[in-house]
Write a structure and sequence with these properties.
alpha+beta, Beta-lactamase, 2 domains, 3-stranded antiparallel β-sheet, two-stranded antiparallel sheet, 18% strand
Amino acid sequence: MFDPNHFAIRIGRADWEKLINDPNKPLLNKAIQAQLAPGSTFKIIMATAGWQEGIAQKLHVYCNGSANFYGRNAKCWVYFLHQSHGEVDLTKAIYQSCDVFFYTLADKLGIGRIAKYATAFGLGQKTGIDLPDEASGVMPSEEWKLRNFRQRWFPGETISVGIGQGAVVVTPVQLIRAIAAISMDGRMVVPHVVNPTNLPSGYVEVSRYSDVKNIPVDPNGWNLITDAMSRVLLPEGTAPSAHIIGVDIAGKTGSAQVVSLATRAKHAHDEALAQNGWFVGFTPRRNPDIIVCTLFEGGEHGKLAARIATQVIKAFVDKQRRQPTKLARKDHNAVEMGALWTSPDGDEDGDGERLNGARFQFDLSTPALPLATAAPGLN
């Protein structure tokens, strides 16, 4: 941390040297320039990719704390607590953050399909935010490794990517944009910095900017993934201490390694080797009004980052509840709404109901038809 007022006058050499040599890099705009492993927050992108490919919804694994892939034993985070997750499906894998499930999913998807979806959701590229010197991050692929290292990609490398480790690195703004898109049924926007003092009194801005990309997301997957994310803050999830009573918050924790888990276990008291804590949370669980990303460098656990993020969300919700808010629409003659509904057509197995989802735009410029006050032909 530093006081920016020091730059209002000529800063002394000693103060400048202290700033540029600080290992915490206080002069780095970490929201758009910090490039770090996303850890388990990446599992939401993995879950979406797996669902779209028809794999994740059918996948069931048994987690006994570790699993073998390509001659190596890949451990789940609960292994170091002498625990296991037992039988795991996609829902449980999300709210309990089971590494073994996502190792398996990554192996079935392969790096090509993982990179395809991660890139579609904006990883490995600048978001376009109106701030200078934004970093691009890295989304690895076979082509990326060949281009940068002149080496072929090995299948074993895909396993670590499946839990947001390995070569994948993101900026906080990339991560929040990607997960926001998933929470909004595939609607991905370009982030912008807006000064709220420029808005009319009593209004908040909605979609002033039109640069929107729509990524296909199956409504059944959207429903299941966001519901599972809401359980992250419940007693069975990874961040129950961040739960806010009366607020529907969904999110995902992440604890990103800076060294291997085995090395970290051997040097448990070395703060320099502490994991980075991540949390991305939003309310409500679908089509949210607010989404917050917290990066707690050296925070060790994503649940600690979650406690910070949910307090920000709570402050927003409390403020919204205290004052009536009008929405300023981009188009005063139209309003867009998202909807979920079931149809009796049956699912792929020929029974049950199918969940559908879509966005609708209603033209408000057409006068509404008068309501009938009596049945036709009756007085």
